[in-house]
Amino acid sequence: YVYVGSLLALVASVILAIILYKITSGTSNSIPQEIVEGVTALLAVVVLIYVSNWMLSKAESDAWTKYIKEQVAESADTGKMYALGFTAFLAVFREGAEVILFYQPLLNGKNTNMVWIGFAVGCVCLVFVYLVIRYLSVRLPLKPFFLATSILMSIMAIAFLGGGIKELIEGDVLSMHSPAWVSWIPSNSVLEVLGIYPCVETVIPQLILLAITVVTFVYWVRKNQAIVRENAAQEEA
User: Fold this and answer.
1) Radius of gyration of the chain (CA)
2) Nearby residues of 220 by Cβ (< 8 Å), 6 or more positions away
3) Calpha distance 148→55 (Å, rounded)
4) What are the pLDDT digits (tens) for 42-89?
5) What separation, in Å, do the N-terminal and C-terminal C-alpha atoms of the chain show?
6) Whole-model pTM?
7) CA of 26: how far to CAs of 23, 31, 32, 108, in Å?
């Protein structure tokens, strides 16, 4: 059930990639590339924030173990093992959709060869990690792994937010304003990678998202600590 759900999710991810490619194919009836890239980047922000918060909520091993046991027990108790397959489908398709939304703006830019090289290296690393966990019974340190990945996704989300809005500005969907308090921000390749531009339309949303990210990070860290204390109290009882 799990492998079938995973394979169906891969197929669905390929179909989604084809749809996005057709939309951005550059035909006369297609949506302007800047608008498509901007909307795609903003969708990627939503996905990245969701996955980042989900990983934060499962950063503690106790929380992750509880989540897995609840999912498996619910499927087994009801006799609906296909629910496991559907869970696997959602998990893989969520990642597949995230990868597609992440790579779509990159492939429309320069140095696409480096994008594919990075993709290939990532696939090789994933295969290695899978083989190590599957056959050598090595457990990943969930807390640092989930926390580091969540922080990386949050940084990517903030960068994509700025980049997406900048694309919408270039597509004449939004106007650009650069008052004195943001005009000092330099324009260089490093800041462009982080989605930081000297305009109000990008800086203010990024600052708001940064504040929300910090608040949610503190919230989940405290909640995970409460779960650990609760489990410890139950064991003592």
Assistant:
1) 21
2) 53, 56, 57, 59
3) 10
4) 887 887 888 888 777 777 666 666 666 666 666 655 555 666 677 677
5) 38
6) 0.64
7) 8, 8, 8, 11
